[in-house]
C-alpha cells in the first residue's frame, strides 16, 4: 500500500519528541498492510531499535509462537507500537511522548483498516480504549470502539514479555489468543455472544512495564 509506505517514510524522519535524539532508527511497523488483525504494543526495545522492526526480541519470539498456535504468522497480521522510538533504558513512555506519537499509530490503523486490534499490555490498551482500567481486569474482553476513524473490535492482551516471567500468565495469554480466530470472524457491528463464566483468579503481579 503506497500510502502506508509513504507514511513510514515520513515517520522515519520524525522529530516530534525527545526520543528522536537517542534512537538508532524509527520502528514503524511490519506485516500485511491489508491485515484483518493488528497488534499494538508499547514501544521498541533494544533489539527493535537496532533492527528497525517491532517485536524481534524474546517477546517477539513468543508472539510468533502464539500466532502459530492459532494458524497465523507475521505475513498475515500487522504489528506496530504506540511509540515508534525506543525510550532510553526501556523506561515507561511519558505522556508527552505518547501525545506526540499517537497520530502516527492512528493513521496506520486508518490506512490498514483491521477488523480486530489486539493491544499488548497496559499502555496500548489504555490509549486505544480511552479508559484507565488496567490490563489485568480487561484482558480477553473485546469491546467495540472507533480508532483512526474505523470501527474495530479492540481486544486487550497481556504483553508477551510479561508471560516470559510468569508461567500462569503465559497460560492465560494462550487462552486469550485462542479466541482471536472467532473475533476475526465477527464484525464490530455484530452482537457479542453470551458472556462466558468469570475465569479463575490470576497472578496479582503484573509487571509495571506492561
Q: Structural class of the secondary elements?
A: alpha/beta
Largest sheet geometry: 6 strands, mixed
Radius of gyration: 16 Å
The run of helices and strands is HEEHHEHEHHEEHHH
- Portion in strands: 5-15%
Number of continuous helical runs: 9
N- and C-termini, Cα separation: 31 Å
Number of strands: 6
Strand and helix layout:
Elements: H1 2-11, E1 30-31, E2 37-41, H2 46-51, H3 58-69, E3 78-81, H4 95-112, E4 116-120, H5 122-129, H6 135-138, E5 143-147, E6 150-157, H7 160-163, H8 167-177, H9 180-184
Parallel strand pairs: 2-3, 2-4, 4-6
Antiparallel strand pairs: 1-3, 5-6
Helix pairs in contact: 1-4
List key phrases describing it.
210 residues; alpha/beta; six-stranded mixed β-sheet; 37% helix; globular
Write a compact overview of the structure shown:
The protein is α/β, with parallel strands linked by helices. Helix content is 37%, strand content 14%.
Amino acid at each position: 500500500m503506497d500510502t502506508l509506505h509513504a507514511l513510514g517514510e515520513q515517520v522515519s524522519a520524525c522529530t516530534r519528541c525527545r526520543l528522536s535524539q537517542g534512537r538508532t532508527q524509527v520502528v514503524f511497523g511490519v506485516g500485511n498492510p491489508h491485515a484483518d488483525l493488528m497488534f499494538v504494543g508499547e514501544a521498541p526495545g533494544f533489539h527493535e531499535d537496532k533492527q528497525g522492526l517491532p517485536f524481534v526480541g524474546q517477546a517477539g519470539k513468543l508472539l510468533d509462537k502464539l500466532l502459530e498456535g492459532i494458524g497465523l504468522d507475521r505475513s498475515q497480521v500487522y504489528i506496530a507500537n504506540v511509540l515508534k522510538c525506543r525510550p532510553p533504558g526501556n523506561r515507561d513512555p511519558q505522556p508527552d511522548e505518547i501525545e506526540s506519537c499517537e497520530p502516527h499509530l492512528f493513521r496506520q490503523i486508518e490506512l490498514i483498516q483491521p477488523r480486530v486490534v489486539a493491544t499488548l499490555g497496559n499502555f496500548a490498551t489504555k490509549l486505544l480504549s480511552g479508559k484507565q482500567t488496567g490490563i489485568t481486569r480487561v484482558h480477553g474482553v473485546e469491546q467495540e470502539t472507533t480508532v483512526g476513524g474505523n470501527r474495530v473490535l479492540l481486544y486487550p492482551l497481556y504483553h508477551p514479555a510479561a508471560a516470559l516471567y510468569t508461567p500462569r500468565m503465559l497460560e492465560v495469554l494462550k487462552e486469550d489468543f485462542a479466541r482471536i480466530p472467532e473475533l476475526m470472524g465477527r464484525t464490530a457491528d455484530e452482537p457479542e455472544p453470551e458472556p462466558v463464566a468469570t475465569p479463575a483468579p490470576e497472578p496479582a503481579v503484573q509487571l509495571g512495564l506492561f
